[in-house]
TrEMBL record:
Keyword terms: Heme, Iron, Metal-binding, Monooxygenase, Oxidoreductase
GO CC annotation: endoplasmic reticulum
GO biological process annotation, one example: brassinosteroid homeostasis
Source species: Oryza rufipogon (Brownbeard rice)
The protein, known as: Ent-kaurenoic acid oxidase
Keyword Acyltransferase: no
Length: 395
């Protein structure tokens, strides 16, 4: 992030030159600069670090061309974010939240790592959507590997023991093995004429998908898309739900305000940066970005800009009671053609959880002043160790 010293020295230019992840890089830190880059799909293509591309997969959204991204997004967006899909998922999300809260608040549970349990809960939901019928062993094998994967995603690509990237590569191999095993099972069952019970899930849709030329997705394409979606579909929701709960517990006077989710997304910045690469010489805010240079969109700087959000470090949901934010000033899910396709699903999960939690439970942290670690996502180092207590028999 740009320091205040640099800001005062160079002024509010919106772009700053640096060298990151072995590439000359421009940091875009204002709404205007971020909006221009994110909305220009011809001038800027994805430019994620080598570690991210390798770990999420070369056939995933982080490395797809614009045309491939549009094709796969069209296939997958409606079953995740469409009104009919969200209505279908609501019952399962509600049941999962209720059962999880009851388990965490039972006397036998004692203290729980609130963040860890939330990640498991949101992972169970996203696996149901993408791989309905997956057994507990499959879910546990997948969930365990994602923690190591995430720690390596924005690390330097150093493949030596002791480095985050080395551990993350091993985690990816495990994920590929598990997902390929499920995929092989689905294909074998289909070849034998067995029909799966229940509605189609995302893996079924990816297996059967054809483009206008009759081309189907290869196994490595399906696996990479699943790795990406399964990760994005539980990490952000789990972390934002934890922080929303913590903020509300610390601010009892704003329990009832409806825009808590948006304010938490602004304050916490789970996706604090994204990456692009210039396809030609192009000007942003009056400054030339040379062809081939990387551009990092620093959403955290936008969300903490006191010229956009007065007193930005204060948790204040009332700031959302006026007109909707201008384009480029609120970027928790990105912007433009590559806007996160699961944004409405994430908000639904968080809203359902907060509904049940705030009406029926309370949280007491073991270490309220616990140090926060900011990579790969903001989290207390004790994973929000806490006691969950039931305060109402109606929930």
């Amino acid at each position: 992030m740009v320091s205040m010293e640099e800001w005062h020295r160079f002024g509010r230019t919106g772009v700053y030159r640096t060298f990151m992840f072995s590439s000359p890089t421009i940091l875009a830190v204002t709404p205007e600069a971020c909006k221009q880059v994110l909305m220009d799909d011809e001038g800027f293509v994805t430019g994620w670090p080598k570690a991210t591309v390798t770990l999420i997969g070369p056939k995933s959204f982080v490395n797809m061309s614009y045309d491939d991204h549009r094709r796969i997004r069209k296939l997958t967006a409606a079953p995740i974010n469409g009104f009919d899909a969200l209505t279908t998922y609501l019952s399962f999300i509600d049941q999962t939240v209720v059962a999880s809260l009851r388990r965490w608040s039972s006397p036998e549970s004692g203290q729980v790592e609130f963040l860890t349990e939330l990640r498991r809960m949101t992972f169970k939901i996203i696996v149901q959507i993408f791989m309905s019928g997956a057994d507990d062993a499959t879910m546990e094998a997948l969930e365990r590997s994602y923690t190591d994967l995430n720690y390596g995603m924005r690390a330097m690509a150093i493949n030596l023991p002791g480095f985050a990237y080395y551990r993350a590569l091993r985690a990816r191999r495990k994920l590929v093995s598990v997902l390929q095993g499920v995929l092989d099972g689905r294909r074998a069952a289909a070849a034998k004429g067995f029909k799966r019970s229940g509605a189609m899930d995302m893996m079924d849709r990816l297996i059967e998908a054809e483009d206008e030329r009759g081309r189907r997705l290869a196994d490595d394409e399906i696996v990479d898309v699943l790795i990406m979606y399964l990760n994005a579909g539980h990490e952000s929701s789990g972390h934002i739900t934890m922080w929303a709960t913590v903020f509300l517990q610390e601010n009892p006077d704003i329990f009832a305000r409806a825009k808590v989710v948006d304010e938490t997304l602004r304050c916490v910045n789970i996706s604090f940066v994204s990456f692009r690469q210039a396809t030609r010489d192009i000007f942003v805010n009056g400054y030339l970005i040379p062809k081939g240079w990387k551009v990092q969109l620093w959403y955290r700087s936008v969300h903490m800009d006191d010229q956009v959000y007065p007193d930005p470090k204060m948790f204040n949901p009332s700031r959302w009671e006026g007109p909707p934010p201008k384009a480029g000033t609120f970027l928790p899910f990105g912007l433009g053609a590559r806007l996160c396709p699961g944004n409405d699903l994430a908000k639904l999960e968080i809203s359902v959880f907060l509904h049940h939690f705030l009406l029926g439970y309370k949280l007491k942290r073991a270490n309220p002043k616990c140090r926060v670690r900011y990579l790969p996502h903001p989290r207390p180092v004790d994973n929000c160790l806490a006691t969950i207590t039931k305060v109402s028999d109606e929930h």
